[in-house]
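Journal club prep — side note

Before the paper discussion, L.F. wants everyone to see what a predicted structure for a comparable chain looks like in token form. Sequence:
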Amino acid sequence: MTRDDFNAYCAAKPGTIHVVQWGNSDVWKVAGKLFALCGWHEDHEAFTFKVTPMVFEVMGDAPGHRPAPYLASRGMSWLQVHEPDKVSDADLKQHIDVSYELVKAGLTKKARRDHGLGED
């Protein structure tokens, strides 16, 4: 997945906003809450996303994956694909989808309603 593909995929999700921060990283938020980001790792893209605690434990050392710098060191369940050639686009999209849903599920009903995400 290229950085442009990543941005297009995240942009298609309802209620999202894009900001560039943290040293030129593409940061995606839903209702103001981070759900995915793409920055640089050495000479290529690295993709970061939220996961469940179980997935964090199981996938933390899977090929191409690692605990997300900064976020995981603060006790949060975030992974980073730092070797994108070892992870299929379909798997990366699934990670992004799950992250989006986890973050969206943590929003208040009012925040979901205010950002056109329903109340469920």
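L.F.'s comment for the group: The chain has one domain: 3-111. Keep this in mind when we get to the figures.
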